[in-house]
Amino acid sequence: MVATAPPALFLDAFTSVIKLADLLEAITKSLLFALLIGLIATVNGTAAGRAP
Questions:
Q1: Where in the chain are the domains?
Q2: Rounded to a whole number, what is the distance in angstroms from the first to the last CA of the chain?
Q3: How far apart are CA 22 and CA 11, in angstroms?
Q4: Per-residue confidence of the chain (52 residues) as pLDDT tens digits?
Q5: What does DSSP assign to residue 26?
């Protein structure tokens, strides 16, 4: 069974729990982590390509 709730109620509950600063922090940390992993993989791949 699925309970139906108005979207406005869901949005109100969501915004009362999560603040904009928390959301931006989570997105920023995720992007920085992805960039770091990409940089490490690039450096490892470049170094491996040069080794005989």
A1: 19-52
A2: 62
A3: 16
A4: 566 878 888 888 888 888 889 989 999 999 999 999 999 999 888 877 765 5
A5: H
C-alpha distances in Å from residue 3, one per residue of 6, 25, 40:
10, 32, 46
Residue 1 is given by DSSP the state -
In angstroms, rounded to a whole number, what is the distance separating the alpha carbons of residues 27 and 35?
12
40: tokens are 């490490």
Lookup: tokens for 26: 């989570």
Alpha-carbon distance values, 22 to 9, 41, 48 (Å): 21, 29, 39
Please give the Cα distance from 18 to 16 (Å, whole number).
6
Look up residue 20 and give its two tokens.
């904009």
